[in-house]
Amino acid sequence: xxYSFLVALLSLTTVLGFAPSKIHxxxxxxxxxxxxxxxxxxxSSENTAKCRRSILTDASKALSIAxxxxxxxxxxxxxxxxxxAVNKPDxxxxxxxxxxxxxxxxxxxxxxxRMSDMIRSLxxxxxxxxxxxCQNYPNTPxxxxxxxxxxxxxxQKDDKYIVLVVDEFGGRGNVLNFNVGDxxxxxxxxxxxxxxxxxYGTTFFVRENGIDIAITNAIEAITQCLRSEDGYCTNVxxxxxxxxxxxx
Length: 248
What we know:
The chain contains 8 helices and 4 strands. With 248 residues, it is α/β, with parallel strands linked by helices.
């Protein structure tokens, strides 16, 4: 699970039709005497590297939500696996302001109402936008949610969003997958999402407690952290909190 936040890059390459054979780690250090001899090449190499990084960064920001909708964050796909991008706006709900979309019914109507009220209250009080998509790939609106929820668009200033995508993927992986805007990462860093999916999204937890409890526990944990006095979490809070702390 510690590599779960490489999903944006891995899923991007998968949707484009290829999978990387290696992931290289680059580190920087103090220049040695031999390195200083390369100063004549540094300028052009650095400019080329910056250009490539800029292109990759823009591309990953624009497509990270779309690719996450179809690939689990905690189960590496085999090299031959290919999941095609989906765009089915006809699967979007008729109402224009739904914060929870279910093309696969994991939550009861009562749970949807309670979680929706909690999510709307969180957004009203803190500005953080939490959205939930329950799907069974390929039965999903896919790319269409970007416009429906106004998320992940290039140059978008409102990046305080969290998209929770719930998919059982045939019981082969973690059911909780997250796409987090840059405006949330200071309050809830990467390690929080890894621990959250590891606590509630595993096949063992779902088998013992039900996928609906996995979803509601995750939503409540996110809400509690963003409403806390510190407004910051690295660990997943324990259950049994008061409704007031959840904004209800």
